[in-house]
Write a structure and sequence with these properties.
317 residues; seven-stranded parallel beta sheet; 50% helix; two-stranded parallel sheet; Rossmann fold
Length: 317
């Protein structure tokens, strides 16, 4: 009996140690070590939005390394061309394997046109990565309703629209994979970004409903929820005023994950068909687990900790 007790305690201690050094949820960490490697995606056509910088750019690099044909979309043609050049040096892709398709994801009317252009170029779309979007830094009381509407259009309606354009093709082929970059902000209600939390929570809900509806068609869904990641997200973030940007550049704080590592884990999630993954370092990862399973207690602790400390943590400091 004592031996069994010691064995159980050893396993628990080992699991706790593994969790403390994890930078993703336990399911994701398991599949990173024991699941399919990203090269299972070789030869597939992947369309990445928001591919000119940050997480999207590094997702493109990861997919290029394993031999995916790529469609790169964002607003900046120049930046996309730079990413394209880098993708061609990552693996064994040729110039014809990477299509630069610049457009504003908020231009809903152009989505069907863009989809037709991708299908004309490659004949198929195996993976759609809805990565484009913007963050926010503003208090609720100071945020104009126009900003709320803009953010909902960009972060929620736009990926829904593009997904709806791609779905008929995937349904006809009876295969496909839709991924979307959500946020830990969909799991933890953080101050100074309420509308951003709203848009990402809506993304989670809609895409999980889609996952159930698409299961008879053999179409997979992956909702990725990154925590603090070192990107240019805050420099282009919405404020409370329409037409303004936050403009603050991030620093590489110790608890902020690199965009390349985040992209690596997202591609792992796609390769293994994982439904939802949390990608973050501690303490944000631990807080996410607490909020998921002990929401009332965690909310009480938040109030005791104080607003200033919560805002510091959410920025990865």
């Amino acid at each position: 009996m004592l031996l069994i007790f010691c064995l159980v305690m050893f396993v628990l201690a080992l699991s706790a140690l593994f969790f403390w050094f994890a930078d993703g949820d336990l399911t994701l960490m398991w599949f990173e070590h024991f699941g399919h490697k990203a090269d299972i995606l070789k030869g597939r056509v992947a369309w990445v939005t928001g591919a000119s910088s940050g997480i999207g750019k590094h997702i493109a690099y990861q997919l290029a390394r394993v031999g995916c044909k790529l469609v790169l979309s964002a607003r900046s043609t120049t930046e996309l061309e730079n990413v394209r050049k880098d993708c061609l040096t990552c693996g064994h892709l040729t110039a014809d394997d990477v299509l630069v398709l610049p457009f504003d994801i908020a231009d809903i009317a152009y989505h069907s046109v863009a989809t037709d252009m991708v299908l004309k170029a490659f004949g198929q779309i195996d993976i759609l990565v809805n990565n484009a979007g913007r963050s926010q830094r503003a208090w609720i009381i100071d945020t104009e309703l126009a900003v709320d509407r803009e953010m909902i259009e960009l972060n929620t309606v736009a990926p829904i629209s593009l997904t709806k354009c791609v779905l008929p093709h995937m349904i006809a082929r009876r295969r496909g994979h839709i991924a979307v970059t959500s946020s830990i902000a969909a799991k933890i209600s953080v101050p100074f970004s309420a509308t951003y939390c709203l848009t990402k929570s809506a993304v989670n809900a809609w895409f999980h409903c889609l996952e159930v509806e698409m299961s008879p068609h053999n179409i997979l869904l992956t909702v990725a929820c990154p925590g603090p990641v070192f990107t240019n997200l805050t420099s282009a973030a919405f404020t409370g005023k329409s037409g303004q940007v936050y403009g603050e550049h991030q620093e590489q704080d110790k608890n902020r994950m690199s965009a390349s590592r985040c992209a690596e884990l997202m591609v792992t999630a796609i390769a293994n068909g994982l439904s939802e993954v949390w990608i973050s370092r501690h303490p944000v990862l631990l807080i996410t687990y607490c909020m998921q399973y002990l929401p009332s207690l965690t909310s009480r602790i938040f109030r005791l900790v104080g607003l200033k400390r919560i805002m510091t943590t959410r920025e990865g400091r």
